[in-house]
Write a structure and sequence with these properties.
142 residues; mainly beta; Immunoglobulin-like; 4-stranded antiparallel β-sheet; 3-stranded antiparallel β-sheet; 0% helix; elongated
Length: 142
Amino acid sequence: MVIRNTGNANLLINTLEIAGTDRTLFTLTDNTSNITVNPSASHTATLRFTPNETGAKSATLRIVSNVEERTVALSGNAVIAVNEPENIMGDGGTYLFQSSPNPIRSGYDATISYRINTAGTIKLTVYDVLGRELAKPVVLFY
């Protein structure tokens, strides 16, 4: 989400906070307080939706600033529940997220997300339940 300052003075965002019944399913991943947005500039707030069950979910983003208080409706529709990533290396910095769709079916596209917080080479190999190699979709260097 982008917050743009169209005025001619600094916009001071005191807080960004999420409220509502499903507020725990929506997360702000960046700084949420004391944000200064210069005139004609913008601030990007990254929101993450991590449902724990299927169905429509909603919350409200509350923006409190030196100009006014505004709210933004947040909504998401979870087709499958998303679990927190698994710390696959036990180091607190290497995570593998749930694939989508799950299970992965032959002949269909799938998304496999991962997060690695250390520099190095990434080699991802996909195997079937019998241990046969299916694909090597990623080889990256960080």
